[in-house]
Design a protein that fits this description.
2 domains
Length: 93
Amino acid sequence: MLIVARRKGQRIRIGENIEVVVTEVSRGEVRLGIVAPKHVAVVREEMQRAVEEANRASAASTLSDEVEKSEVRVVTELGVGAFSSSSTAGTRS
């Protein structure tokens, strides 16, 4: 794990296409902006855990007679990033 100190406006680059920007620093909280290609999923860890738990629960539940197994698909991978409700439309968070 790389640990670095950054101030507001400073950036960290990951590879050639991913950039993490410190957008705000306040007591006990840091806001980060992440710039990444569309094919790279950018997801909060707690959101990914919630989806995985829901998938496990769904897979463990029994199917009703009205629904054929071929109609049920369990999401195993997140294909898009989560989006914030910030003033910038379509901002990934």
